Structures are given as structure tokens and as C-alpha cells.
Amino acid sequence: MLPASTVMSLAGAGAGTVVPRGFLYSNTPSMVLNRSRETHVRASHSDVNEDTDDMYEDLINNYGKVVFSRKDKKPASAEIDDDAESLSFAVELATVATEVKAADIKVLFVKPLVYWTRFFIIATAFSRPQIDAIRSRMRDRAEKKYGKIPTGDTKPNSWTLLDFGDVVVHIFLPSQRAFYNLEEFYGNATPVELPFENQPPFRS
Questions:
Q1: Cα atoms found within 13 Å of the Cα of residue 133, Cβ hemisphere only
Q2: Please, which residues have CB within 8 angstroms of residue 54's CB and are 6 or more apart in sequence?
Q3: Is 173 exposed, middle or buried (0-12, 13-18, 19+ CB in 10 A)?
Q4: Whole-model pTM?
Q5: Structural domain harbouring 142
Q6: Which CATH number covers residue 148?
Q7: Which of 30, 51, 65, 103 could form a disulfide with 124 if both were Cys (CB 3.0 to 4.6 A apart)?
């Protein structure tokens, strides 16, 4: 678990081999998704909504090729400043999620693994109206406090994505979160210690 106060020390970590935006990464080749196998499994999984499958296919279709490693590295001091700013923003959004009763909120430092963002936020919601409430409040807080407007979903899906550039938010219904299991595919990412008590992943 990475304390928020020390994440800046990782600013100099190398990007290594990178993968497309939205694609799933692991250092273990067997963990990288096989499209044909995954498509077959998803087609037979009744708990995974069709709109989530469509979203997944769009990610693969739009960003389905391996791209270059990072070459535009900033000086270490600038990277530390950027990481600190992004961390503050990510923790703020995670706090917003807990205000709307999201569960099992995780912030992952993924910059050493991908070239296109610094932090993931992954959270569970229990209904589409709750997803919409989390999404709307995050957008509102980000715009008013940080001047950031995300790209991504304009309506609540069972896997809803908000892309703020340096922070990417994934809000799942429980079955979709368990099925797509981003935490496993990004298993080498460093978790950030959050300043609040997390709700359990499932309602009692």
C-alpha cells in the first residue's frame, strides 16, 4: 500500500513497454487477454450486460495496437510536481465516490505501466442511478475545483469510464467489476492509501 505522501518518489519509474489506452496489461504474457477466448467467455456470461461488451469492443477496436514507449520524459522535478498534483486530484475524486456511498474504492498508481495516465480509480456501485450520482458529482467537483472536464460516458453504464487525462475513473456494478477484474490485470500497479474508511465491496 502506497501512502499518498510518498507516491511522488515513483516519478522516475520507467514506462517500459506500454499498451493501448483501455487495454489490459500484465507482465505475465498469459494474463494478457486473448480476444477470441474473452469474446467467447463474455458471450456466455449472463451477468455481463450487452452495453459493457460493446464498450469493451470499442476500446479494443479504437486502441487495439501496441504503441511506442514513452520518449517525451520531463525532468524529474517536473514529474514529481505533476505526480503530486495528479495524486491530490485522484484522492479528491475517490473522496467524492465515498460521499455517494461507492464501495471498495481503490486508487492505483499506474504510470510505470502505461503511457497515457498516472492514476486509476476503481469503485463499485450497486445500481445505475448510483453510478450516475457518482459520475455527476465527480464531474461537478472536477470542473469547479480543478477546471477539468472528462471525456467518457455521458450516461451511466454497468462499466462507466471517466477520463480526466492524468486520472481515469472506472465505476462498476459488482458483477462487471468481478468479471473484468482490472485490479488483477494491472496487478503491478501500486495502491494508494486513502484517507477514509472504505465501504465493503458487497452490501450485507
A1: 14
A2: none
A3: buried
A4: 0.66
A5: 4-191
A6: 3.30.460.10
A7: 103
- Taking residues 105-132, what's their average pLDDT? 95
Confidence of residue 163 (pLDDT cuts 50, 70, 90): very high
Q: How far apart are CA 3 and CA 191, in angstroms?
A: 8
pLDDT of residue 39: 35
Region of 165 please: left (phi>0), alpha (psi -120 to 50) or beta.
left
**36 within some domain:** yes
Could you tell me the three cell numbers for 171?
Answer: 465505476
In a domain, 121, yes or no: yes
Residue 147 within a domain: yes
Which triple of cell numbers denotes residue 158? 454497468
Q: Please check whether residue 202 lies inside any domain of the structure.
A: no
Q: What is the pLDDT of residues 120-152, one digit of tens each?
A: 999 999 999 999 999 999 999 999 999 999 998
- Per the CB < 8 A criterion, the answer to whether 107 and 121 are in contact is yes
**Cβ atoms 185, 25 nearer than 8 A:** yes
